[in-house]
Every structure is written in C-alpha cells, then in structure tokens.
Amino acid sequence: MITLPKKLLVMEGYNPAGITSLAQAGATQAAILYKRMLSLYVDGAQIEIAEISGDEAPNIDIHKYGGVCWTGSNLFFSAADNVVQRHIDRCREFFAAGIPQIGSCWGAQLAAVAAGGKCELNPKGREFGIARKILLNDAGKNHPMFAGKRSVFDGLVSHADIVTELPASATLLAGNIFAPVQALDVRLGQGSFWAFQYHPEYDLSEIAALALVRQDGLIEQGSFKDRAAVQEFVKDMNDLQQDISRSDLMWKWGIDEDLLDEQYRTLEIKNWLTHFFAERE
Questions:
Q1: To pair with 188 at 20 to 30 A between CA atoms, which of 51, 209, 255, 276?
Q2: CA 155, CA 78: separation in Å to the nearest integer?
Q3: 212 with 272, same domain?
C-alpha cells in the first residue's frame, strides 16, 4: 500500500438526480466507485468524498488534501450551468494550489475546459460500453501514467461530450476513432491533471447497470436494436463479471484482460499514486 502524506479527496461529479438514477438501476455511486478503486492501493480511511453538484456548494479546506480525483458525471459542458461552473472554479483552485488531480470522463473534459480548452457534444453520439483500440501516441508511450500499459488497449466508457480543443498547456496522450482525445496531461500554474475519457473504475457489472440508465438514448442512436438487446448485454456483462473464465462471452463481446484484469484496468490510478506519493513513503 502507498502511504499518503495527506488525504485524497474524491469529487462526486453526479448531481442528486443522477445519483438516484444510478441507484435505481443498481449502479454504484460514482464517488464510491472511485474510493473503492483507490482503496486497492491506499488505505480507504485516507479517502474522503465531496458531493459538489447539489444546490449548495460544500465548504472544502483544500489544504487538507494531497490529491484530488474527479469522477464521471451526468452534467454536460455542452449544456453548462452554474453547477458546471462550480466544478471549473474548484478545478482551477486545485491547479493554483499545486494539488495533483486525476479524473475519468467528466474529469478529462473538466481538465481541458478549466485550462482553456473546449468540449462539445460528439456528433457520432455516445461512446458506450467498450472504447475500442485506444492508441497511445509517442507522448503517451513515454508518460508515467501509462507505465506498464500496452500501446493499444480497450477501456470501459460512457460519454456524449468530447474534448474538441486542447488547451495550450495540455499534452495529448491517447485517442481512438470515436474520441480523438482519450487521455491527456494538463498543466496549469503549479498543478498537474492526469485524465482519461474512459473509466478504469468501472467493471462489467457497472457498465451493465449503466446500460439500463442510458438505454433509451442508446437504442435511439442505434447502439442497441431494442430493449431485448439491452437485456442480453446486461445479462452477459453480469455473467462474465461473475465468472471471468467464460471464454464464450469473452469471444462474443470481444473482451479480454484489458477489462477483466482489475490491476491492469486500474494501472493509470496506481501509476498516479506512485508518481506523486510513493516517494514520500
């Protein structure tokens, strides 16, 4: 386990309505998923959660924390409001304080926008389920976030917005045919934000539950033929998560250790913790 000099703070990206919709489908709250993933590598008692997407912004003493993690979200930069601006302002505050940040999906978009980039609705629709053939570029291959990662891999994913313009202070690390920005490193002021459009914190059961939350839109855009097809996907994902030796399901859905090996799937998180905190043990 990695010893932390200060606590980690997980910023819950979902608003209360979004948290409720996840729970109704049997999905885990995003911040709890992140805490569970981080607890593979650090003491869970060192991880706190802030729910910042409600009507009132919580008070956060940023000096208590050595690192900040951003979850996915049901918010959209393509439909920004005062809560979205609250996220941007907080992110910039952490940048200014030099506190390392990392994040999935919404986190990647937030890192870009907070530093001056842009996000828009993807004209291709929602990338959902498995992000195929995420390709590291030369910068990605040499970046400590991807130490031990193959140069091409799959990830679990669900997003409708994409980063369409990188800020000047960002380094593009990876992309695929659906989303040209799948990973980036953003520097601003004294701070650094490692981010990825996919979700290392998800497993197959979580993506199955999320399919139920998003099913109407996924059917409308043609990702699934109908609700029966959604149910087939949900059952197969849950069955494979319960028994990862099911080669029939691995073959059917094109799934391998990229998604089934928890240590490999969460390697970016381990690398972030190691890079910023392990030397302080």
A1: 51
A2: 23
A3: no
